[in-house]
Please model this.
Amino acid sequence: MTAPHPAPKRPVAPEPAWGAAPEPGPARKNRSAWIAGGTAAVLIAGGGAAVWAATSSSSSAAEPSASSPGGQNSPGGPAGPDGGLGSVLHGEFVTSADGTSKFTQTGEVTALSATSLTAKSTDGFTKVYVIDSATATGIKTGEDVTIVATVNGATATATSVREAGAQPGGAGPGAG
Model:
């Protein structure tokens, strides 16, 4: 009769040092894969949303409808000096043609002299503009106007002052 063979012993792994990261087991590896996959999915979805938003807004901004604010039939349409800003009360922007910083405002003329014009928008915003005799021709205190100005530091020099709602070229809302 032969002697029974003892069962093979499994090798014993040394105990990890206190505070050391545990050895990655199957559960830890799966969790890491899920986290990496989830992160990738979020990044891909976010990138797709950003591309969609960029292409959607650029196509709609470049081609406003004729009846929408900033469209061809509205004040400040594409042919206007403010580049299609529609019903904007006031704000600063930079032109793509030459990188010039400009400011636009629609509001009531509250003060007018030979060298300056002060306008107040319906939200209470007030700004003073440098003008010359040709810039504000026919404009009176109390009138609603749309102003486009070139900005240089703290000075805004009006390049266009027209009645609010007037079409570029002098045709007002009732012209026809």
Notes: The two ends are 122 Å apart (CA to CA). The beta strands are 90-94, 101-112, 116-120, 126-130, 144-152, 155-163. The longest helix spans residues 26-62.
